[in-house]
TrEMBL record:
It comes from the Eukaryota. It comes from Wickerhamomyces mucosus. Gene3D superfamilies: 1.25.40.570. This is PCI domain-containing protein.
Length: 451
């Protein structure tokens, strides 16, 4: 997994095009490292100029960076206000040539797409979507649904992306039920259909619908369709072929979405099972070992290692991704909540210092978050400010007995050891301990942790 900003920037320039490239470059143009900010800005200006596209990012981000940090005389033309005025004139001329004012009756899909993208890069998302909805080509083209799905991700309107599913399924269903049409279900339509499916997966992840993301991945990777030349095209064919998959998002982002959705929603027992499943192994990339190690840090209850890996291997990737960056901090908080849930389901008291050391989280941040966790989960715990420990407010003799078993030395390493040795059977053991108390409810969170 490439984590160095300069290397990631080079990969972005190499792998992405269109509005996705411009959005990604806008993130790097805000880098505190001047050389990276300048390179991103120059690449963006070159690309926009080559397509006669104007964008708010030019005046808001790219040109100020050039003015401030770039002294290369080759780039001096960008500092001249006439360059931007000339770009606007060229865009207006291009719009006129494409007959943009008469897009309702446009019969050339490529012309229509170009006009729509001109609006998208100008952040005129509503106008772009209105063009799609009003076009006479809308019901006939999966390509316009793909643009809508892209707009949803760019705009943060993930429901717009997800809602394309019904439209494309209707399109394919009609094609497959019509023998004549089926004979002309061309390759580009099938490829577009699968690209939209993966955009929907990515949007579901960004919307934090993790269970839905997992289910969609499981369903989509099984799909294949026959083209009019009798060739069978599968979703994995498209995902694994960078050229056919397109350059709006990449395979790495789909894999990240699936793996972190699994990590956030599954119990340790389920994670162990997932590691052997076809869906997990069928579309992994060179980072497979990194993801496996992440899973195993939870299945072995080694949460300190989990957060170290997040910091060292995944945090840089996420923060340098213009889309994942938006949800990364909340995702990390959910993972910390998952670790808190484990501890507080097994103890009646634990020191903040010990939790801080074991989870590799700064103590003041930990105290604040655990207080929020206790409130959110409505747990009967409170924080003793003087002793700097979390205590259960109410507990009975059975819980005292459990505490003697698990905290005889007041060291949670004993608990961790037991978790590592007996994760699968932990739930059954807990039931045996309290078998003599038929009216007592199981410890909160125990079932959720051990599956």
């Amino acid at each position: 997994m490439i984590n160095q900003p300069s290397e990631v920037l080079n990969k972005i320039i190499e792998n992405y095009t269109g509005v996705s490239l411009i959005e990604r470059l806008s993130l790097f143009a805000k880098s505190p490292e001047p050389s990276i900010a300048v390179k991103a800005s120059i690449e963006a200006l070159k690309y926009l100029s080559s397509h006669s596209w104007n964008s708010p990012h030019i005046e808001e981000i790219f040109l100020p960076i050039i003015e401030r940090f770039d002294n290369d005389p080759i780039h001096s033309k960008y500092k001249n206000i006439q360059w931007l005025e000339h770009l606007r004139v060229r865009q207006a001329r291009k719009s006129e040539e494409l007959n943009a004012d008469n897009f309702y009756h446009e019969s050339d899909i490529d012309n229509l797409k170009e006009v729509i993208y001109m609006n998208v890069v100008n952040k005129q998302f509503t106008d772009a979507q209105n063009m799609i909805n009003s076009s006479s080509l809308n019901s006939k083209s999966l390509q316009l649904s793909e643009i809508s799905a892209q707009i949803g991700i760019l705009q943060g309107n993930y429901s717009l992306t997800i809602n394309q599913d019904k439209k494309i399924e209707s399109f394919i269903s009609s094609a497959l039920s019509n023998e004549i049409y089926n004979k002309r279900l061309i390759k580009v339509e099938i490829e577009t259909y699968f690209r939209i499916k993966f955009l929907i997966i990515f949007a579901s992840f960004l919307k934090k619908e993790y269970d839905e993301t997992i289910q969609l991945c499981s369903d989509v990777i099984k799909l294949s369709l026959k083209a009019n030349d009798d060739n069978i095209i599968s979703s994995l064919d498209i995902l694994n072929d960078a050229e056919r998959f397109g350059s709006f998002i990449t395979k790495d982002e789909i894999i990240f979405s699936y793996n972190f959705s699994v990590l956030l929603t599954q119990t340790p027992v389920q994670l162990n099972q997932t590691l052997t499943e076809k869906v997990f192994n069928s579309f992994q990339n060179s980072d497979l070992d990194a993801y496996k190690s992440l899973f195993q840090s939870i299945t072995t209850a080694n949460f300190k290692q989990l957060f170290i890996q997040l910091d060292e291997r995944f945090d840089p990737f996420a923060k340098l991704n213009v889309f994942i960056k938006k949800v990364w901090e909340s995702l990390r908080l959910e993972l910390r909540y998952k670790s808190y849930e484990l501890y507080f389901s097994l103890v009646i008291k634990v020191s903040a210092e010990h939790l801080s050391n074991k989870l590799n989280i700064e103590i003041n941040q930990l105290i604040k978050e655990v207080k929020g966790f206790i409130k959110d989960k409505e747990l009967e715990f409170f924080f003793d400010e003087q002793e700097n420990i979390f205590l259960k407010a109410k507990y009975d003799k059975h819980e005292v007995f459990l505490n003697k078993l698990t905290a005889a030395t007041e060291n949670i390493e004993i608990i961790e050891s037991k978790i590592k040795d007996s994760l699968i059977s932990a739930n059954e053991k807990a039931k045996n301990i309290f078998a003599d108390s038929s009216q007592r409810k199981p410890l909160a969170g125990l079932k959720g942790i051990f599956g």
